[in-house]
Amino acid sequence: MTKIQKTVLNRVEGEIELKLVWENNAVKDAFIIAPNFRGFEFILKNKPILDALVITPRVCGICGHAHLIVTTKALEDLYKNAGVKIETPQNAKIIRDITLFSEIVQNHIRWFYLFVLPDFIKLDKGKSLRKYEPIRGYQWRKAVDYSSKIVKVSAIFSGQWPHSSYSVVGGVTCDPTTFEITEAEAIVDSVIRFTEENIIGMDIEKYLTVSNLDDYFEKSGNCDLKTFLKLSLKHKLHKVGKAYHRFLTICQIEDVFEKGITKRKKKDFKPEKITEIDTFSFLTEKGINYGKNRYSWAKAVRYEGLPYETSPLARRINSRDNLFINLLDQFKDSYIVRVWARLDEIIKILIAMKKRLKNINLSDPFYIKPPADYREISGEGTGLCEAARGSLIHQIKAENGKIKQYNIITPSTWNLGPRCEKYHSPAEKAIIGVDSPLKAEMILRSFDVCSVCTTH
């Protein structure tokens, strides 16, 4: 007998509805519904191009800084394509990386402790898990504290977080002091200690030698990652949550991750191979359509016609990370591997943040003014960025300094968008076959759900 169950998820960014079709005590089909349309692309139309630097960070309250960085890149590409030479100082590139990194680490810590671990309280019901209980749990509260600390690094350089607009065409508007850099270094060091003592259960240098699951268990002490892994194995979460085993990363950031497309083997990423499909979306090229079978405000995004996962796991695979290549061979792209990859990225990013803070040269410029007025700029530009949840793209078309068209493709659209004529989205595919509603929700959360970005 077929049964349909519809749930509005909590503990996600924004609102997402999960519609499950059950048959023989298993999920036969899954629909991820983004119910609220926001319309930033329409808000931007006919605005001066520089207004995008203020408007796009409001797309999301968690990864708004990533939207600022990718907007800056799109505008700088627009200027260059219009024949205007843009010089971006090395200091500006370094600080853009640092502020983006702080936002990603903040997101990953909060996601793991606020969204992932509380699910195990329901699933396992062990008294030892009370430390992860929302609001009351001491480990939950500690994680919130340190996630707030790391994002202060972004505020030091950008003036505020969230919704900062300090990154502009030609550089950044900040002019940091030695004291501010030292303060940022101290914050990063404190979060490294938190990560070592609470998340991975060993020092970072030792962790970087880990090559597989058994190796990690042998080398680590008591910690939250080990707790997560043991619980996942106990409840067979290493066998569920598998999507398409295809991974997309559109940017390379030195010392952190490389760009590429991995299907059977890794290939170069080419933006022109991306398509957006509106067959099952309320939002179409011709306007709003509530027709039959349409169920989400998001569109389906495909690369060479295929759905790809974009995420920290995708970044680890496209970077040919030895640990995750081994985990993928053992467990495929399952729930347990997807979650671990996001925690692993915290470590890689904190190391990169320390290196970049030491490379800031206060005697060099942070901003070089573009040699043209923005009102003279016409043409097209594309910005590419890796945000907390995966690959983020902004595309702009402008005429005489005014935005004629603005297009945003977010990581959550890649992962959580609706199906197309041939394929489910990666997250929908990952849920099919699971045997409990709670596990279905947990698998969906493993993609780090953000509905406000999905519908932007």
TrEMBL record:
Keywords: Iron, Magnesium, Metal-binding, Nickel, Oxidoreductase. Its cofactor is Ni(2+); Fe cation. GO terms for cellular component: cell envelope. InterPro entries: Ni-dep_hyd_lsu, Ni-dep_hyd_lsu_Ni_BS, NiFe-Hase_large, NiFe/NiFeSe_hydrgnase_LSU. It is found in: Cell envelope. Mg(2+) binds at residues 41, 408, 456. SUPFAM superfamilies: HydB/Nqo4-like. Fe cation binds at residues 63, 453. It comes from the Bacteria. GO terms for molecular function: ferredoxin hydrogenase activity; nickel cation binding. Its main location: other. Ni(2+) binds at residues 60, 63, 450. The keyword Metal-binding applies. Belongs to the [NiFe]/[NiFeSe] hydrogenase large subunit family. This is Ni,Fe-hydrogenase I large subunit. The lineage of its organism: Bacteria, Pseudomonadati, Aquificota, Aquificia, Aquificales.
